Amino acid sequence: MPTPPARETATQSRTASSAVHGDADPTPSGAGFDTQRSGDPTVRSAEHPEPTPPRRPPTRRSVVTTWRRLAVWMHILTSVGWMTCAIVLFALLVPALSGDAAWAITAAHHIDTQLLAALANASAATGIVLALATPWGLTLHRWVLVKFVITVVQLVAGIVLLSAALNTAAETLEVSFPLVAGTALMAAAIAFQAWLSVAKPGRRRGTRKPPTAPAWVFATAVLAPLLDATLGLVLGFPSPLFAILAIALAATARIQARS
User: Fold this and answer.
1) Residue 254: CA atoms inside 13 Å, Cβ hemisphere, count?
2) How far is CA 127 from CA 68, 78, 94, in A?
3) At what angle do helices 142-157 and 117-133 cross, to 10 degrees?
4) Pure H helices in the chain
5) Rounded CA gap, 42 and 50, in Å?
6) Is the CA virtual torsion 167, 168, 169, 173 positive or negative?
7) What global pTM score does this model have?
8) pLDDT, tens only, 191-244
9) 5 compared with 239, residue with greater pLDDT
10) Among 208, 217, 218, 224, residue whose Cα is nearest residue 253
11) Phi-psi category of residue 256: left, alpha or beta, with phi > 0 → left and psi -120 to 50 → alpha
12) Which residues contact 1 (CB under 8 A, 6 or more apart)?
């Protein structure tokens, strides 16, 4: 086998020694590999990073969608809370039928005045605002109309019958069977309304599709329960003042959209 020239052998030895000690540049220095001199626009050095594109401001549609989702979230939250309070009342009043659980009557009366009434007002207000502020409407779909009627009946029955009966029970420490049955019916009605929201039975009435309300209408549905809760803490009893105001504003926006 022929022996390589001495000069070439020495050059290879120095190259191998430099690679072992980390002195050699592993990147070839040819023009095809020099990204700084090749002018490749897709490769930028660390000293000159690619500028970040500016963020686009939120559009009107995205703002409306955000507030509408928050309003739906508030409606679900308050509705679940309302049904939970009704179930708790039922669980407390059942043992009180025997007359051996005066503490349960006191606890049920406290839950009714401090939680259930406020959650019922907030659930009803957010649901009505969502119906008025979206193409669903209050009367365009039968399942929405049925939910609205059930809600009104529940509010009237809860204020006139349930709360009055609980006030009497808290004074006399006696519970009647209709009061216990009323709490069970209230929880069942809310559960039925939840099924209507999922199944959406029936067809749409009419051909005209109303437009979606502005973002501020949905914002009132989100803020009204919080403001009513704060007002209730100040007054000492639940007050649906801001809930009624939110419904009135949503109805006004609906009428203006039709004209």
Assistant:
1) 21
2) 12, 10, 31
3) 160
4) 6-20, 35-38, 60-96, 102-111, 117-133, 142-157, 163-172, 177-199, 215-235, 241-258
5) 10
6) positive
7) 0.76
8) 999 999 999 998 777 667 788 999 999 999 999 999 999 999 999 888 999 999
9) 239
10) 217
11) alpha
12) none
pLDDT tens for each residue of 133-167: 999 999 899 999 999 999 999 999 988 899 999 99
Phi, psi of 128 (to 5 degrees): -65, -40
Query: Residue 214 and residue 180: Cα distance in Å, rounded?
Result: 43
Give how far the C-alpha of residue 157 lies from the chain's centroid of Cα atoms, to the nearest Å: 28
- Tokens of residue 204, six digits: 């749409």
Helix axes 163-172, 177-199, angle to 10 degrees: 150
By CB atoms closer than 10 A (0-12, 13-18, 19+), residue 67 is buried
The tokens describing 182, both together, are 């009323």
Residue linked to tokens 């009966």? 165
CB atoms within 10 A of CB 216: 13
Provide the 8-state DSSP code for 208: -
Residue 83 in tokens: 């049904």
Position 183, amino acid: T
In angstroms, rounded to a whole number, what is the distance separating the alpha carbons of residues 142 and 72?
19
The Cα 29–Cα 116 span in angstroms is: 78
Query: What's the token pair of residue 193?
Result: 């309304």
Contact in structure between 96 and 104 (CB atoms under 8 Å): yes
